Amino acid sequence: MGKQAVDILDLDVKKLIDMLNAALCEEWLAYYQYWIGARVLEGPMRTEVEPELLIHANEELNHAVLVVDRITQLGGTPVLTPEEWTKWARCKYETPSDPYVEEILKQNLDGERCAIRRYQEIASFTNGKDHATHQMAISILNDELEHEQEIEDWLNDINILKEDIKKFRL
To answer: What is 3-70 written as a DSSP string?
Structure first.
């Protein structure tokens, strides 16, 4: 981003870069959480959920690319080491120690809800002040909202399946 483009921003650029770095770290953690969760997943609907988790992982990686590009356009330096990710991230990585599909989905749902809050904050912070970052945040926010809905739908389907199984046992 050119000097004039940064100069006309009507906001604290350092604060924005910090917000974006936190989001970048959260995207890397989300990517790995989806990716490893898909690999260890067990239980009902695994064959349907696994490929979708891998799609979500790739979308999180694409978000990281958008965010790191914006950080550098603003003249900032992205977080450079994985050791820093958990220090910057508000959205935490949850180890998939229980590979049951429902538990993996609940962990990812928590992550998506945290990401929704993060990008809503960035969108609000940049609204009317930095159109490029605002548009990026809104685009990513829409993806995160879609992920949340998909995960809620899968969890609902699992609950229906569990209820159906109870009916047959009676």
So the answer is: HHHHHT--S-HHHHHHHHHHHHHHHHHHHHHHHHHHHH-BSTTHHHHHHHHHHHHHHHHHHHHHHHHH
CA nearest neighbour of 30 among 9, 56, 52, 51: 56
Per-residue pLDDT of the chain (170 residues; tens, 9 = 90+): 566 566 668 899 999 999 999 999 999 999 999 999 999 999 988 999 999 999 999 999 999 999 999 999 999 999 999 999 999 999 989 999 999 999 999 999 999 999 999 999 999 999 999 999 999 999 999 999 999 999 999 999 999 988 888 887 76
Report CA dihedral (83, 85, 88, 94) to the nearest 10 degrees. Answer: -120
Distances (CA, A) of 99 to 33, 40, 58: 12, 6, 20
**Position 108: which residue type?**
N
Best CA proximity match to 101, nearest among 144, 154, 54: 154
Prediction pTM value: 0.91
d(CA 19, CA 11): 12
Residue 32, CB-side half-sphere exposure with 13 Å CA sphere: 14
